[in-house]
Specification:
By secondary structure, this protein is mainly alpha-helical. It has a domain of 53 residues. A two-stranded antiparallel ribbon has the order 1-2. The protein is rod-shaped and about 190 Å long. The chain starts with a strand and ends in a 6-residue tail after the last helix.
């Protein structure tokens, strides 16, 4: 600050007198006052800025706290859902295992059924072949039987007595006689064939 000397009514007096009568007035420069005002304005701006930042910080902290609470709730919910998912996964795995076992059983049963079906088909084919063979044999045997029956119709009791009287019949007579007895016994139940006749008079058929 500068000091300006005040006016006096006694300029010619001595120094001690001047010290008594002279007064000093201290005046603050205008630029300093402007600087103070500028400083105050800047200080207020800084205060307002800090308050705004403080408010934003408080709001951000509140949001962070709220977010943390929400995240914590989500984590708890996630843990619960994870447990449920694990339980469902375990149940699904167990079900899949049971399905696999049942599928294996069905596959085994299907293979067994296919094998049995193949066996039945083989048996049926063999039966058909045997039936065809039997029908062929029967077709060949029927004419022979018919011929034998026709030959039997020419025989009489005298022929049997003559055959019985032979001590040593010619070859083939025994077999023919046996076949005739079987045919007659099967056709006419009135003809009696005793065991003595079969075992003594007629030989057993040769197979």
């Amino acid at each position: 600050m500068g000091a300006l000397q005040a006016s006096s009514s006694r300029p010619s007096e001595s120094l001690p007198s001047l010290l008594v009568f002279y007064r000093y007035a201290y005046i603050t420069p205008k630029t300093f006052i402007e600087s103070i005002k500028l400083y105050g304005s800047m200080l207020q701006e800084n205060i307002d800025s800090l308050k705004s930042k403080r408010d934003r910080l408080s709001s951000g902290l509140r949001k962070l706290i709220d977010t943390r609470e929400k995240v914590s709730a989500l984590e708890d919910d996630l843990k619960e859902k994870t447990i449920v998912v694990e339980e469902k996964k375990a149940a699904a795995d167990a079900f899949a295992e049971r399905v696999g076992e049942e599928k294996a059983k069905v596959t085994a049963e299907s293979e067994k059924a296919n094998l049995e079906a193949q066996t039945c088909a083989d048996i049926q084919r063999n039966v058909s072949e045997q039936r065809s063979s039997c029908e062929e044999d029967l077709a060949r045997a029927i004419p022979l039987v018919q011929q034998a029956e026709a030959a039997l119709n020419t025989l009489n009791k005298k022929d049997f007595q003559e055959a019985k009287s032979l001590n040593k019949p010619p070859p083939g007579v025994e077999d023919i006689t046996t076949a005739v007895m079987h045919l007659l016994a099967g056709v006419d139940p009135n003809i009696e064939v005793t065991n003595a006749l079969v075992h003594t008079s007629l030989p057993k058929p040769q197979r």
